[in-house]
Design a protein that fits this description.
heterodimer, A: 80 residues, Non-ribosomal Peptide Synthetase Peptidyl Carrier Protein, Chain A, 4 helices, B: 594 residues, alpha/beta, Rossmann fold, Aminopeptidase, 8-stranded mixed β-sheet, 5-stranded parallel β-sheet, globular
Chain lengths: 80, 594
């Protein structure tokens, strides 16, 4: 999957989940950059991303992804 | 909000839940506030968020208490200060098969041991329910159990003494028996929900390992919607009427073109079978107290010919009103509502014609519209929608349709009188007005939760609260039953007054709208004042709390002869009546004649 397409769709997921249309994501974006991104929202985010891209994260990935860049790597590899 | 009506897109709801919530809380609708305690045997955070959305969408503004992770037993049995001071209106116990403590763990289980395990499991939950009931006397919603996805022993798991599926099925039956005997216990049927979703979709072991969710996050909205359906039914938010189109909705074909002989109904054709099954399904709603009406563009004689078709399961008598004419359907629904004394928001309208559906949706946004594309799809939507969620079956429910039909006969009789008082006298009305009897408690609680229009304070009571109140000396309680020559209306009015020295404060005054303009309210007042005088009560204080639905009683206390003491900006008012010089006002109903 084209990385910039994936990034666009991922941005839309972030905007919905955190209800903030001004969110801009980059490879280095992490939970520290988005105020509401706590462990509970993380669950919601993961489900929404999985649905958007028709894929599942492995358990290790769910807790191991450090930033949006790593998430995009996985999406580009396995997402639809 | 369309997004939150079944069939919904659960993933989309969860993804956009923050935005949906924001829209709901800022839409200006007035909602009743309810406190909901969620005691979980697994994580409940997202369940609560989804539940909040569905309740907000049903006119209920919830406040939640959430037990700490897997502390449902401790919170219930040992209590917690936070839960005690929260004073819940309803408690939801979210347990699942993950919480079963005595499920067989080896193959050589004897019948006797299985029985012991089931007993122990059931007592564990009984302890929870009885402790909660003692402390909180409010309705308890309890999940039953979902079947497992994994079956080590294959089919044996479903019947063997050590089988998990078999154990769970037995537990579900035991829970059902408990709920039948305990009027405060309501089962949230996750066994059905998980089966309907498919166990492969429902279960997500990784969600358990990672987050301690006992189900896939994708089905959380299904679960929450089901709980919300029970809660809104408990607080009187069910729909009351199904208004039905005829051609291609109750039978196949167009009767004015095909003729009554050629419409499709009965077992001859597949299409005929589908409509017969649909009619049978609808008749089941009628038997549970849902009112059926016809709303069809047809000549009345064609409508009646169709309903009198030899294979028609529904007959003209099953409908409380038949509107078969060439008026617009939204007008027919409004007229039906007026004639029945109901509001259009308690209607579900079903029609196969998308254009008719769109017009009604546009003109009556508060009416629920189901577009029938196939009878099977509509039966499924009705099954899952919760519009008519049954929480108990009372004699009143079963006879409701009959009572509304009797009302139509009364209206016909009224037309032959020019003087309204003469008409009222011609009805030969008798009222039985007295204290709450044990056998009536569930009907009384039901009325306090269902009545919206003729309701001065709209205070809702659980059955447990009514029971507690019914033996307290600090109250005067009245419930009234109205009978006339067309039939018995059953319990139609409830009054609860709280005694403070020589003053009575009216906490609740309600009457069913099916006995409007029959002077029953005056009969109730006469009786109330008589009892007050016996007890030396000199003043009666009446309170009117305005809601979007109870405008019709804004001036009731004025008509009763109370003096208005104050009106606040929001329309609430306080009234007082001196009991000393009161003179009886009812002279058309014989009260307690025998």
């Amino acid at each position: 999957m084209n990385r910039s397409d994936a990034e666009k769709r991922l941005t839309a997921v972030f905007c919905d989940v955190f209800d903030d249309d001004s969110i801009k994501i980059s490879d280095s974006t992490s939970a520290a950059d988005i105020e509401d991104w706590d462990s509970l929202e993380h669950i919601n985010l993961i489900s929404a991303v999985e649905n958007e891209f028709g894929m599942r994260f492995k358990m290790k990935e769910v807790s191991g992804m450090k930033n949006v860049g790593e998430m995009l790597d996985i999406i580009c590899e396995r997402g639809k | 909000m369309k997004e939150l009506v079944f069939p919904f897109n659960g993933n989309d709801i969860m993804r956009r839940r923050k935005k949906l919530r924001k829209q709901l809380v800022s839409d200006g609708n007035i909602r009743i506030k309810k406190k909901i305690a969620v005691l979980g045997g697994s994580t409940t955070d997202h369940i609560i968020s989804a539940l909040e959305l569905f309740l907000l969408n049903n006119g209920i503004e919830p406040e939640f208490y959430q037990s700490e992770f897997n502390k449902f037993y401790e919170d219930a049995v040992f209590g917690s200060e936070k839960l005690d001071s929260f004073r819940p209106d309803v408690i939801f116990i979210h347990t699942t098969s993950r919480n079963l403590k005595y499920i067989p763990d080896r193959p050589d289980i004897s019948e006797d041991e299985l029985k012991k395990r089931l007993d122990a499991e059931l007592s564990y939950f009984r302890n929870i329910w009885s402790a909660l009931e003692k402390k909180h006397s409010c309705p308890i919603i309890q999940n039953n159990f979902e079947l497992p996805l994994f079956r080590q022993t294959g089919n044996y798991d479903g019947w063997g003494l050590s089988g998990h599926s078999s154990y769970i099925s037995r537990m579900n039956l035991l829970f059902a028996y408990e709920a039948v005997r305990n009027n405060n216990l309501f089962i949230n049927d996750i066994n059905y929900l998980s089966a309907a979703a498919g166990l492969v979709t429902w279960h997500d072991p990784e969600a358990w390992y990672m987050y301690k969710y006992a189900m896939s996050t994708a089905v959380i909205p299904d679960l929450a919607y089901s709980v919300a359906s029970i809660i809104k039914a408990l607080f009187g938010r069910n729909k009351k009427v199904i208004a039905l189109d005829l051609d291609n909705t109750l039978w196949g074909g167009v009767i004015s073109e095909d003729g009554v002989g050629d419409i499709e109904l009965g077992t001859e054709t597949a299409v005929g079978m589908s409509f017969s099954e649909f009619q049978k399904f609808l008749k089941g709603y009628k038997d549970h107290g849902v009112l059926l009406t016809v709303c069809s563009k047809n000549d009345k004689e064609n409508a009646l010919a169709g309903l009198n078709h030899p294979d028609s399961i529904l007959s003209p008598e099953d409908f409380v009103l038949i509107k078969a004419n060439w008026e617009n359907k939204d007008k027919n629904i409004s007229d039906t509502a007026n004639e029945l004394g109901l509001l259009t928001d308690s209607f579900v309208f079903i029609d196969d014609n998308p254009a008719e559906c769109a017009i009604v949706e546009e003109q009556l946004p508060e009416t629920t519209v189901l577009h029938l594309s196939s009878t099977a799809q509509t039966m499924y939507e009705l099954s899952r929608s919760g519009y008519f969620e049954v929480i108990s079956v009372s004699g009143e429910d079963i006879r409701r349709s009959e009572m509304y039909s009797a009302n139509a006969k009364r209206t016909a009789q009224q037309k032959s009188f020019t003087d309204y008082a003469d008409y009222l006298r011609s009805l030969d009305m008798k009222a039985i007005i007295g204290d709450f009897q044990p056998i009536l408690l569930s009907r009384i609680a039901q009325l306090t939760n269902k009545s919206n229009q003729f309701n001065l304070t709209t205070k809702r009571y659980s059955e447990a609260e009514i029971k507690a109140l019914s033996c307290s000396p600090g109250y005067i309680r009245l419930c009234g039953r109205l009978i006339d020559k067309f039939g018995d209306n059953g319990i139609v009015s409830v009054v609860i007054g709280r005694i403070e020295q020589d003053v009575l404060h009216i906490d609740l005054w309600l009457m069913s709208c099916r006995v409007l303009k029959r002077d029953m309210e005056f009969a109730m007042l006469d009786e109330l004042v008589r009892i007050c005088c016996e007890k030396g009560i000199r003043k009666i204080m009446g309170y009117y709390y305005r809601t979007p639905k109870n405008n019709m009683v804004a001036e009731l206390y004025g008509r009763f002869g109370f003096a208005r003491i104050s009106v606040s900006e929001n329309g609430d008012s306080v009234w007082v009546l001196d009991t000393k010089d009161y003179e009886d006002q009812n002279n058309v109903i014989k009260v307690n004649p025998d």
